[in-house]
């Protein structure tokens, strides 16, 4: 049964990942008490869980603020994501069921509806459903937890990526291609698409940085352009 702390925690997580609460924004106890109409006890429990999840950090006067990730950390995170997502692709292709593939199609249709309505929060929510399902389809719960956790921490990149309607529209087409590759059990094709989609989000983030970061950005892109270490899938 959901508790008051669960409600505060889950809604706050949703607002951080959906962009309603932005990096650097304060989330004080007083704000959450007023917002949810609950006492300080569940609010403190929810904030404690947000710290444990890595979504907030301690700000001025020890008030929780939405965690900020700098450019260097974003690139480190994506280096790991590229390795993990590439490794997971073969497992997803091998283990996903026809019913799950059909569910991915339904999810992609929901994403298209949210896109037409320009509902960024809903787009982020639905895309998370898509990613969570393909992660679950690896049939490795530890790997799935890592995949979902890393994706959550990349919220700053996703907010920039999908504020551009053209880039967001490309996601619908890309997800259709991913589904087709899964139906065909095309492990290489699916992996290539996953890596391309992950890189595209990072490229969008890089393109919107200040011009003064260009040299450092290109150096990091060159590192990522080198074939990332690949984990071997064993059966």
Strand order of the largest sheet: 1-2
- What is the mean pLDDT? 86
Unreliable stretches: 210-218
Distance between the termini: 38 Å
| CATH hierarchy: architecture of the largest domain | Up-down Bundle
H/E series, N to C?
HHHEEHHHHHHHH
Could you describe the largest sheet, including whether it forms a barrel?
Answer: 2 strands, antiparallel
Task: Please bin the fraction of helical residues.
Answer: over 70%
Q: What class would the helix/strand composition place it in? A: mainly alpha
Counted beta strands: 2
- CATH-defined fold name of the largest domain: Four Helix Bundle (Hemerythrin (Met), subunit A)
What is this entry, summarized?
The protein has 235 residues and is an all-alpha fold. Helices cover 73% and strands 3% of the residues.
Please name the defining characteristics of this protein.
Four Helix Bundle (Hemerythrin (Met), subunit A); 2 domains; 73% helix; single chain; mainly alpha; Arc Repressor Mutant, subunit A; 235 residues; two-stranded antiparallel ribbon; 11 helices
Describe the model.
The chain is 73% helix and 3% strand. With 235 residues, the chain is mostly helical. It folds into two domains: 4-66, Arc Repressor Mutant, subunit A, CATH 1.10.10; 71-225, Up-down Bundle (Four Helix Bundle (Hemerythrin (Met), subunit A)). The radius of gyration is 19 Å and the shape is globular. The termini are far apart. The model is unreliable at 210-218 (pLDDT under 50).
